[in-house]
Amino acid sequence: MMRILIAVMTAMVSLSALADEGMWTFDNPPRAMIAEKYGVTLDAAWLDRVRLATVRLQGGCTGSFISGNGLVLTNHHCGEECIEQNSTPQRDLVSDGFLAASRPQELRCQKEAISVLVGTEDVTANVAAATAGLAADAAVEARRRELTKLEQACEEVAAKSKGGALKCERVSLYQGGQYWLYKYKRYVDVRLVFAPERDIAAFGGDPDNFQFPRWCLDMSILRVYEDGKPAQTPNRLRFDWDGADPGDAVFVSGHPGNTDRLLTVAQLELQRETFLPFWLIRYSELRGRVLQYSKTGEEPRRTAEAYLNGVENSIKVRRKQFDALLDPALLEAARKNEQALRDAVAANPALASSASAWQDIEAAQKTWRDMLVPYTFIEGSAGFNSTLFEDARDLVRSAAERAKPNEARLVEYTEARLPEILQYLRAARPVYPDFEVLRLSFGLERMREWLGPDDPLVRKIFGNDSPDALASRLVNDSSLADPAARIALYEGGQAAIDASKDPMIRLAVVIDPAARALRKRREEQVEGPVQRGQEAIAKARFAVYGTSIYPDATFTLRLSAGAMMGWNEKGQDVRPWTELGRAFERATGAEPFKIPDRWLAAKDRLDMTTPANFTTNNDIVGGNSGSPMINAAGEIVGLAFDGNIHSISGSYWFDDRLNRSIGVHPAYIRVALEKVYGAKALLEEIDRR
Predict the structure, then answer these.
(1) pLDDT tens-digit series, residues 376-398
(2) Which of 286, 289, 312 shows the shortest CA–CA distance to 208?
C-alpha cells in the first residue's frame, strides 16, 4: 500500500519548487535536469523500452502494452466510442460494462487503430532546400510536395525491409524549426477486452471533470491483433501495484495533442479576441441542444452520451483557456519573453533575417481574423456537423485527389494517409438518423446566421429549404450509413461521384469549390507567412537557447518528468490521493454520483482505504489521456486520465504551483479486476512474467 504518513503530505506540497515543465521528445529528454531534481538516470535502454511500450490511439489518446499478447491499457473515455458502437438498445455496454469471457468474445473496434513509434528521421535540411528562396505562398506548396515525397519514399523503403510495412508521418516541431519523419508500427485490428460501467469510470461526471479529489476508474483494456491472432508485444510495461508515494519521481509517456506555448503575442491575442469567443458561443448552444435531446428518452440518452461527453469536456477546456488568456499575467509574460528574443535578434547581425518575422505573423493574423468565420463553417465543416457529411467529403475529395500525382494531393489524401480513410469508410458503425439531423440542422442554422441568408453559397445550399427540412432530407435520403455504399463510391472514383444522386454527395460536391478556395487562401495568406515567420523565429530561438526549450505538443510521443504531490488551494493543502471509501460516501444513487450495482454488491469485500486517484506535477494536456505513469524502474504506477482545473491553462503556460495531473491508482485497478469483476484470467495475463 502507500506507506505514508499524513504528516508527510503537507511537506510534499513544498516540492512543487522542484517541478519542471516540459513535454520532451524522446530523442532530447532533459536527462541532466531529471538526474538533478529527481535523482533518476534515464539510460537509452529505459527510454527505448518505454517508447516501444507506449502506443497512440488513432482516436486521439495514448495507451501502453501491458502483456506480451497485445493487451493495451488506456482510459474508458478513450475507448468509449468503441464501447458505444458495440452497444445496442438491448445491450448497453457503456452503462453495463464489458468483460470478454475469452478471446473469441473480444469485440472489434471498427474505427480504431493503434500505432507504436519505432523510429524517427530528421528531414529539416530536405525541407529547407526545397523551400529556399521561395515566397511564402509558393513555399507552402513546395513544402507539402517535399514532405509528401519523403513520406512516401519512407514507406516504400520500409515495405521492403525485413520488419515489414510501416506508416511514415510528417512531423513539424518548434513551429517549423524542425521537420521529422516519424515511423510507426500500426495495428488496425483492435478489440475491446474490458470496460467498467461508466458510472464508476466517470464517477462525478461533468461536475467533477477537471477537479480533484476524484474517484474515477477511468480505464479500459484493448487488445491488438495481427493476422487474426493476438499480436506479440514483448515490449510491455509491468505494474507496481503499490503505486507511488508522495515525492516519488513519476514519468508520463504519451502523446499530448496540442499546446500553444510558442505562439507570438499577436497569435495569442487572436485566440483571446476572436477564436475562443466564437467557438464558445457555438458550442454552448450545441451542448444545450444535445442535452435536451438526450432527455427525451432512454435511446436518445444512449446514442448521444459519448458525443455529449466530448462536447462538455471541450467546453470546459475552451472556457478555462479563455480565462487563462484573460489573465494579464499570461500575456505580460508572453510579451516579456517575445521582447527578450527580439532584442537578442536585434543585437546579432547573423539573425537579421529573423527581425521581421513577428510583424509578418501579425499581418497574417489580421487576414485570418477576417476569414475565420467562413473558413470554420465551410472548409472546417462547422456548418455540416454530421458523420455522413464527413464521409461524403472524404469520398468526393479522395476521388479528385487520387487522380493527381501523389505529391500534388491534399495531405489527407496522399498514399500514406489513404489506408486510414479506407478503414473508416469500411467500418460498420451505427448511424442514428434523429441525432444526425439534430447536429446537422444546428450547423446549418448557425452557418446561415453567421454568413447571412443572402450569402451566395448559403442561398445555393438552402434553396427554399429551412435548416430542419434540409437536414432531414440530407440524412434520411442518404445511403452513406451503409459501408457497402461508401466503398462502392470510393472504388468507383470520380465517375461514381459524378453519377451519384446521394444528397450528401451532391452537397459535398456543391460546396467543394468554395471550401477549396478558402483553404487555398488560408494556406497562401495565413499559413505561408506564419510558417515562414515561425521558421525564422525558431532559427533565432535555436541560436539563443539551443534545444534546451522543448517543442509545442503535436500529438507525437513525449516524456514528462514530475513527482507525486498535491498543491495549495486558497490556503488549504490538497492531499495528493483519494481513497475508495469516499466514493461510497459521496454516492447519491443518481447520476453522475451513482455507484454501479456490481460495486454495491462487492462492497463488503473491498478495502475502503484502497487508493483511488492521485495527483502529480507532470506537464500533460489532452492526448495524454491513457498515458502510463511510470516510476524510475519503468513500472506503471498510474494511468493518466485528467488534470485539475489549473492544468487547462497548460495550453499556454505551465504554473508549477498549481498545474496537476490526475491518475488512476494501480491498486484501484487491481481491486476492480480481482474483487469486483472476477477477471482472474486477465490479471494472470497482466502479471505473467
Answers:
(1) 999 998 999 999 999 999 999 99
(2) 312
